[in-house]
Write a structure and sequence with these properties.
Blueprint: E1 3-5, E2 14-18, H1 19-28, E3 36-40, E4 45-54, E5 58-68, E6 76-82, H2 88-99, E7 103-108, H3 118-138, E8 146-147, E9 151-152, H4 153-159, E10 165-169, H5 177-180, E11 187-192, H6 200-208, E12 212-214, H7 226-237
Parallel strand pairs: 1-3, 6-7, 6-11, 7-8, 7-9, 10-11, 10-12
Antiparallel strand pairs: 2-5, 3-4, 4-5
Function: Specifically methylates the N3 position of the uracil ring of uridine 1498 (m3U1498) in 16S rRNA. Acts on the fully assembled 30S ribosomal subunit.
Subcellular location: Cytoplasm
Enzyme class: transferase
């Protein structure tokens, strides 16, 4: 799965890959001259390439084709995820990136058991961003979804106002997603709780902001299952599955 992202747009027909990507090509993938790979640039251009030179420090490619990358969903979904316990967030980030999330905002809600200090959460966010990169490469995304700094629930509620539609998934009930998304929005904010779910006051806050409480059915899902189910439903309802 030779799919890589560049930090810059490519204007010529040749390009030199350096750093960790180059080492991954030569040492992990053990690719050889003449083999093909794909580069995706920040302007969403998909470049099909042929390797012309490989060293331990860099790889040179000849670009054979450029076209817009069409692998992205046409709805921008932000996950506001209350921090779960342990390493569950690693799994959530990885799978949500595979499913098409555009941005992930870790947050601290009232019932979060996990409350790391500032130094610890900074390291965690850096690790989650690396996981997002790896998942984006594996699933052939057109972007690397951003993992933002951890924020309070109040800050997350404020941030979500930039989305056209806000949905908070609540274990005590709400509307079905297909009713909430009767008209296809361009952007969606989805709120998922930790193991203890949300307090009623938090749900009320999102409703006051114009958002909607939603249900995932009568069964109670685990903290790491709920965001995947919710995102899958959203992608299906917006014709992105």
């Amino acid at each position: 799965m030779a799919w890589f992202f560049t930090d810059e747009n490519i204007t010529s027909d040749t390009y030199v890959i350096s750093g960790e990507n180059a080492r991954h090509i030569s040492k992990s993938l053990r690719m050889k001259k003449g083999e093909e790979l794909t580069l995706v640039t920040p302007d969403n251009t998909q470049c099909e390439c042929v390797l012309t030179e490989i060293t331990a420090e860099y790889s040179a490619v000849q670009i054979t084709e450029k076209r817009p990358c069409e692998n992205e969903p046409d709805v921008f979904v932000t996950l506001y995820q209350a921090l779960p316990k342990g390493d569950k967030m690693d799994y959530i980030v990885q799978k949500c990136v595979e499913l098409g999330i555009s941005r992930i905002v870790p947050m601290l809600s009232a019932r979060c058991v996990s409350r790391p200090d500032a130094k610890s959460i900074k390291k965690k966010c850096e690790r989650w961003q690396k996981i997002a990169l790896q998942a984006a490469m594996q699933s052939r995304r057109g972007i690397i979804p951003q993992v933002c700094d951890c924020v309070s629930f109040e800050k997350a509620a404020q941030m979500s106002l930039e989305s056209e539609k806000q949905i908070i998934f609540y274990e005590l009930g709400g509307e079905k997603v297909n009713k909430i998304l009767d008209k296809k929005p361009k952007s969606i904010a989805m709120f998922i709780g930790s193991e203890g779910g949300f307090e009623q006051s938090e749900v009320d806050k999102i409703i006051a902001n114009g958002g909607s409480p939603a249900t995932l059915g009568k069964r109670i899902l685990r903290a790491e299952t709920a965001p995947l189910a919710a995102l899958s439903i959203i992608m299906f309802q917006t014709d992105n599955f």
